[in-house]
């Protein structure tokens, strides 16, 4: 299986669909949030450096994030493909990921973009806040996250298009329908 970058706005289902793809195809899964929490919890050198940035309210530099992802990528079994969940989020990160993979004689594979209307996204995230008790999923914070997504992350979609790896899947009101479309597509490229 090729590498997959799963892409979409907050609440679009990146984690949910990643889990389904991993279960069906036996791929590796790299969630940047999970990786960072693990590095910090385990007190690795990279984790200590990352924690320093986080504790000071700063974003982790792209170079450090790529180093952490490279370490995680290299630890996964070769040849099974990896799904990147939550990364890249900017064009600079995408270029750094492309370079990191090229150094290993691998490519980014394909990008799966989950397109979901903002009304549905807002409802999902507010529901998640209730179910999981997530303080970061209040309406004001969610709207700010959407603004950041539209300004910083969404332009990356066009970059993937220019790379020739962008594949879009639009929400039609059912997780099973969208998942079926994604699986049908992946079955053709496996």
Blueprint of the fold:
Elements: E1 4-8, H1 14-25, E2 28-31, H2 32-41, H3 45-55, H4 62-75, E3 82-85, H5 91-102, E4 110-115, H6 118-132, H7 139-153, H8 156-163, E5 166-170, H9 175-189
Parallel strand pairs: 1-3, 1-4, 2-3, 4-5
Question: In words, what does this structure look like?
Answer:
The protein has a single domain (4-189), classed as P-loop containing nucleotide triphosphate hydrolases (Rossmann fold, 3-Layer(aba) Sandwich). 59% of the residues lie in helices and 13% in strands. It has helices spanning 14-25, 32-41, 45-55, 62-75, 91-102, 118-132, 139-153, 156-163, 175-189, and strands at residues 4-8, 28-31, 82-85, 110-115, 166-170. Strands 2-3-1-4-5 form a 5-stranded parallel sheet, with helices on both faces. Helix 2 packs across helix 4 (62-75) and helix 6 crosses helix 7 (139-153). The relative contact order is 0.19.
Would you kindly provide a brief summary of this structure?
The protein has 190 residues and is α/β, with parallel strands linked by helices. The protein has one domain (4-189): P-loop containing nucleotide triphosphate hydrolases (Rossmann fold, 3-Layer(aba) Sandwich). It has 9 helices and 5 strands, in the order βαβαααβαβαααβα.
């Amino acid at each position: 299986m090729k590498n997959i970058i799963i892409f979409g706005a907050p609440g679009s289902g990146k984690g949910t669909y990643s889990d389904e793809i991993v279960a069906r195809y036996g791929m590796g899964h790299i969630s940047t949030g999970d990786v960072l929490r693990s590095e910090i919890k385990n007190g690795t050198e990279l984790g200590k450096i990352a924690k320093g940035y986080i504790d000071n309210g700063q974003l982790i530099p792209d170079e450090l994030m790529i180093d952490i992802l490279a370490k995680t990528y290299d630890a996964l079994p070769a040849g099974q493909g990896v799904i990147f969940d939550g990364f890249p989020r900017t064009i600079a990160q995408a270029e750094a990921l492309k370079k990191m993979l090229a150094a290993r004689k691998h490519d980014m594979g394909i990008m799966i973009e989950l397109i979901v209307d903002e009304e549905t996204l807002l409802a999902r995230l507010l529901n998640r806040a209730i179910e999981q008790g997530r303080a970061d999923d209040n309406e004001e914070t969610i709207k700010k996250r959407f603004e950041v997504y539209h300004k910083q992350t969404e332009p990356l979609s066009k970059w993937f298009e220019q790379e020739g790896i962008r594949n879009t899947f639009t929400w039609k009101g059912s997780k099973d329908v969208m998942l079926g479309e994604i699986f049908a597509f992946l079955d053709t490229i496996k």
